[in-house]
Amino acid sequence: MRTTTGWQADGSTTTLRRTQLKRRDLRPDDLAVRVDYCGVCHTDLHAVRGHDGEAGRPLVPGHEFTGVVTETGPAVTGFSVGDPVAVGNIVDSCGECPMCRAGQENFCHAFPTLTYDGLDRQDGSTTLGGYSREYVVRDRFAYPLPAALDPAAAAPLLCAGVTVWEPLRSLGVGPDSRVAVAGLGGLGHLAAKFAVALGARTSVISRSPDKADDARRLGAHDLIVSTDPDSMAGARDRFDVVIDTISAPHDLGPYLRLVAMDGTLSHLGHLGPVTVETIDLLIGRKKLSSAGSGGRPGTAAMLAFCAEQGITADIELLPSARVNEALDRLAHNDVRYRFVLDLSDLDGDVG
Ligand SMILES: NC(=O)c1ccc[n+]([C@@H]2O[C@H](COP(=O)([O-])OP(=O)(O)OC[C@H]3O[C@@H](n4cnc5c(N)ncnc54)[C@H](OP(=O)(O)O)[C@@H]3O)[C@@H](O)[C@H]2O)c1
Ligand SMILES: [Zn+2]
Ligand SMILES: [Zn+2]
């Protein structure tokens, strides 16, 4: 085993502490990656804050990171030491099921191995995430980071970005589309940038009217205030696609009413049971959909699109020692629009 340092919740507290971690020795098709930057996803917050009581299972969050290859296993041909790479929230899959064969490893029938709190397919260990200085990853699930992209601002593309990219693409969003993005956070601001870059007339739906200037800066046409009944009523049936990135449980009805006839509400944010009035689908023959993460081809295509269009996340970069502050502020919706941790402060002895 090799050792590294990271930020871990031990199950008895929701505070992350700097801890020495073990990483597996490299398998033939593994890369060792020095993690430089890792985004703070709202899923990390759900994981850390919901972890209380699961004592004994270590949790190291972090599933959107960029860094540099420091070592390669003997069977690796696509990467060399020194290559900049990016890793998202999936680090393995069965490779054989119809979903994997279709390049949708994110939907693997045997369930993909998640970057943290997942089950390693070979040794059964719990995966530890990217809030750490080193990660060991199977080469198939690392992506060359395009030189055009700033490595810190690109990190959030690997979860937040690809999670909104795949549904936008599969729903055929393009120049004739009318798209609304509900919830202007990490996922939402990238969904807005992508929809605009794909040529769609794009709106933002937010509880926060003070985000209107940001919405316009991101290229959106307007901001619909979700807490203002007049604003919502004025947008009835207006959108071919509504991308819902809201992080809390909520009634889908008000958002379905904004979907145009035969359009789709893609519910990506808070996952779990929802209650839907079928009449909200019936009137206008509307569709309700969901998605999560991306397959290997989709992730590579998203990175190429971002490099071509110059798209990265709007970030606030913090030394990783301030990770607990980042999680607190994320819980209070106090981020525009993604925290990224700089892991270089983990070099040296565990303090
Ligand atoms: N499907 C997947 O694979 C996948 C992948 C990544 C993340 N997620 C999930 O997606 C959600 C968003 O993640 P994120 O990192 O983008 O979070 P985030 O940066 O915190 O953004 C979430 C946004 O939701 C809105 N919001 C928050 N609480 C709300 C409430 N009570 N009512 C209405 N709106 C509310 C806020 O936007 P406004 O201020 O504009 O209202 C907030 O900025 C999380 O639940 C996360 O776990 C899913
Ligand atoms: Zn995520
Ligand atoms: Zn599979």
Automatic annotation (TrEMBL):
Domain Enoyl reductase (ER): 11-341
Its EC number(s): 1.1.1.2
Family matches, as InterPro entries: ADH-like_C, ADH-like_N, ADH_Zn_CS, CAD-like, ER, GroES-like_sf, NAD(P)-bd_dom_sf
Keywords, comma-separated and alphabetical: Metal-binding, Oxidoreductase, Zinc
GO molecular function: alcohol dehydrogenase (NADP+) activity
PROSITE patterns: ADH_ZINC
Name of the featured protein: alcohol dehydrogenase (NADP(+))
Species per Swiss-Prot/TrEMBL record: Streptomyces pseudovenezuelae
